[in-house]
Amino acid sequence: MDALKSPAFIITSSLCSAIICVLALVSLYWSSPLLGTLSDRELGTLDRQYSLILDRCAALMKDDDRPDPRIFGSLYSICNKAIIQLQGFCKERYIATCEDERIELYLTGNKPRP
Predict the structure, then answer these.
(1) Partner of 61 for a Cys bridge, out of 70, 79, 95, 110, CB 3.0 to 4.6 A?
(2) What is the mean predicted confidence (pLDDT) over 80-96?
């Protein structure tokens, strides 16, 4: 029961749930011929979800207390995949999160520590 209250579990589950939400929203329209017709509401939702993911990834990189390297490695991988997906999405569509400086800072300045 203590494992469910641990910070590592909470961070892991938060990142995974946010990424799953974004993937679900994007996959609904990815193969659809209506891809060019995302509504303002849907783009706003994607913007908020990607911003949430960037917040979680920034918190992960700022956290100096990394008790389990395997958990950190998996969370780092999830962040990388989400940011690469965001970069691909930004090539097709514009949302405010596309201009977030944390994207480049994350990809260029932060490398996983052993």
Answers:
(1) 110
(2) 85
